Amino acid sequence: MLKKIDWYIIRKFISSFTFAIGAFVIIAVVIDISENIDSLMESGATVAEIIMQYYLPFCVFFGNLLSPFIIFLAMIWLTSMMAQRSEVVAILSGGVSYTRFLFPYGVIAVFMTAVILVASHFLVPFSNRIKFDFESQYTRGAHHYSYNIHRELEKNKLYSFHHIDDKKQSGYHFTIEDWDNGALERKLFASKAQYDTVNEIWQLFNVVERNYLPNGREQLKIVGDIDTTMALRFIDFDAPDELVFNMTTPELSDYIQQEQDKGSNKVAALKLEKYLRTANAFSILVLAFIAVPIASRKKRGGLGLHIFLAIIIGIVYVFFSRMSSVAATNVGLPAEVAVWFPNVMYLILGILIYRKAPK
């Protein structure tokens, strides 16, 4: 049952968090306006469309991105102010245990974690999709390019594009490689491959076929332009990397499964994005567990020292997150381990700080 002191802390947190998140998002919006005002004004979009379809999703994205750190900062700010006014000492001197003092912070952290979880998995991808559609229509056109794409849609047959244009449904520098027991038997090269969505056939231009004979010799054949059917559709290649951020988590899970079936090299990065949506939300619980014990003691330097510590802790957390993400994509560290490693390290730190805090 929440008591008066609990509601006092919750109200103070809400005001601190609202002010901080509002200030950071406004700064981000001002910076974006200064960089993109010309393209937005020349786009032909109305002011209402710019606000509702560009800047509202922009605010949702940055608000969600910054929320764990802002919540951490707001808790540091609130608790430090209470400590400087001797309110923490008064609460503990009144017979309230330190664990009970942490209770309203726990309520705040659990509630905000639930909100960020829902936002990360569903709301933010939906708002990103609105912003992406706006940019496609008004500021950058509907052309989206992907580069160096490889798919193994059939056993021992590798399809590759140097780059594709999803608006034109075409790809460039297209190759097909036929392998047998680790040996390359045939390679077909086309300067351009155009997909006919009506007839579901491919038009290949300037085709050259190279066959690798058992005796080690090569046989070259100039084919020219041909129409052919293949066991691939343009949609198999048609997912720009940024569209991943427009997918809800169930959609992303389906896409990961499709990429695994194709033998894609993007699976590690996709899994990282999926698991980060959960791990970032739960970082709120971990950071809250650190914030209150750090800021609850009245020290020389006061609020300034606590804010400085919060910034250092935040920077180190981001550093660990980036290092583990790089290890997941480049070294082969499992994505689940990579995204949870910073949280586990900081949880251990929080337990050590908590054990010393009542003293």
Instruction: Give the domain tally.
Output: 2
What's the shape?
Answer: elongated
Total number of strands = 6
Going by helix content, strand content and strand pairing, the class is alpha+beta
Largest sheet: 6 strands, antiparallel
Q: What is the terminal-to-terminal distance?
A: 27 Å
Q: Overall mean pLDDT score?
A: 84
Into which percent range does the helicity of residues fall? 55-70%
Strand order of the largest sheet: 1-2-3-4-5-6
Number of helices: 9
Task: Give the DSSP E fraction (strand runs of 2 or more residues).
Answer: 15-25%
The run of helices and strands is HHHHHEEEEEEHHHH
Task: Give your account of this protein's structure.
The chain has helices at 4-42, 47-84, 87-93, 98-101, 103-139, 249-262, 267-295, 302-331, 335-356; strands at residues 145-154, 157-165, 170-180, 183-196, 201-212, 218-228. The two termini are 27 Å apart. Helix 1 packs parallel to helix 5 (103-139), helix 5 (103-139) packs across helix 7 and helix 8 runs antiparallel to helix 9. It is built from 9 helices and 6 strands. It has a 6-stranded antiparallel sheet with strand order 1-2-3-4-5-6, with no helix packed on it. The mean pLDDT is 84. With 359 residues, the protein is of the alpha+beta class. It folds into 2 domains: 4-140 and 266-356, no CATH class; 145-236, no CATH class. Strand 3 (170-180) and strand 4 form a beta hairpin. Helices cover 61% and strands 19% of the residues.
